[in-house]
Amino acid sequence: KKKALIIGSGIAGIASALRLAAKGLEVEVFEANSYPGGKLSEIEIKGYRFDAGPSLFTLPEQVEELFRLFGKIPEDYFEYTQLEVACNYFWEDGKRIQAFADLGRFADEVESKLGEPGGNVRKALQRSSFIYEHLAPLFMHRSLHKFGTWTNPQALKSYLKMGKLGIFSTMNQANEELFSNPKLVQLFNRYATYNGSDPYQTPATLNIIPHLEFNIGAYFPKKGMHDITQSLFRLAKSQGVTFHFNSKVEEILVENGKAVGIKAGDQEIMGDLVVNNMDMVNAYKTILRKQKQPKKLLEQPKSSSALIFYWGIKKVFPELELHNILFSEDYRTEFSHIFKKGSIYYDPTVYINITSVHKPDDAPEGCMNWFTMINVPNNQGQDWDQLIAEARKNIISKVNRILNTDLESLIEVEEILEPRTIESKTSSAQGALYGNSSNNRFAAFLRHANYSSSIKNLYFCGGSVHPGGGIPLSLLSAKIMSEMISLQ
Ligand code: FAD
Asked: Does domain 3-34+245-299+440-483 have CATH number 3.40.605.10?
């Protein structure tokens, strides 16, 4: 049997392990942490449970596909429900809307509460599915680095539609053209943050994202987001994949232009191929430091990072759903702070994710588990202690204004995750959530391929390589990578 060595047990590392095991390889995974999942893990503090990182789950069939590879019925191992309300939105002027998953209800809500013609919401989602239909097969499901991708019939069809795919305007421009109410522009601009980008810079092509949330659907795993990695981890173990925790890989061993193994601690482990799930930038700095560096790719601007307060709140707010957004009054200035000034605006958009709404045992009775997050710049050596202290005050006073409460007195437990700790816990360069940003139209072409062009038998998966960050794309990176491996 050929042996694959995988570095990192993030979602893409686990998915890669499964896909290679399904192909009949012997698979060993080496993970620096004491637990699997990377960014997709969980924390527990005094009766409160929080999903540590990702909170939004789309495209569940990609997880299910991994169970089916082994002839399993996914529902027996991993359960999830579709959300009826994708998100609750709040503004400072007292306006509130619910983004219903049902398009008709959402359009009516927007029309009655914000005076925006419901037809514009429909148009936005049609635009989104048009982009998805033309670009997903090309950019999400295939390697961009293989000639065949560019000559297949799907690619030729997409070339003809180039003008309509939003490549030449920004997301904000396209949304301003469509909507009359600035609140709708803001709501649809927010989708840029789903991959850590800036709506005022990123091409309108990223208007593809609402298609995932509305046309395909937003979901919640019944046991929390953490169950995505946990259920896949259990599956991998049951299929004979070996996991080594507390095993930080120090080097990928290369001989005569071929990856032949890895070095972890004082051990050298040999294999037939190596798959790297560690962030690509940090991998070249550390475990590939002796190899030729793809300088241009390494220098690409990174996506934004996040500041999260995990708060145990001793009160139930009935107006809050699983996903809640309290919008900034000046979105453009908020993003110029994140992407141009490298700082945090005093009036940030606040995202509150509360799993206890759907999973009551995540918080004690009469309480809620608030994962309270704002988008922040990636780590460029800012004075984070000061920025975090200021942001905490600003977030609390924003919540107090909008929800008419005294939040400080309700916070029972607190834990913080921020750019520096995101990097130290998962090796993510500059604490970026999604690898490179998509702030320019060439970004898709400037991600690292799923294989090394100079070292044979070395492959890459995860949010920092093609096709990009986020759970769905990280899972696809594993699929694209595994399709490149032949057993000959
Ligand atoms: P990672 O999760 O980055 O894991 C990499 C693993 O490699 C880690 O376990 C690390 O310890 C290990 N490793 C690194 N170096 C070594 C080494 N030398 N030796 C051994 N092991 C090593 N995505 C969504 O889809 N929806 C969301 O709502 C969402 N929200 C997010 C919120 C936050 C706060 C964060 C941090 C991320 C969010 N994301 C979201 C992004 C998503 O979490 C990532 O894109 C995805 O989890 C990346 O997975 P990955 O496989 O690339 O690896």
From this structure: no
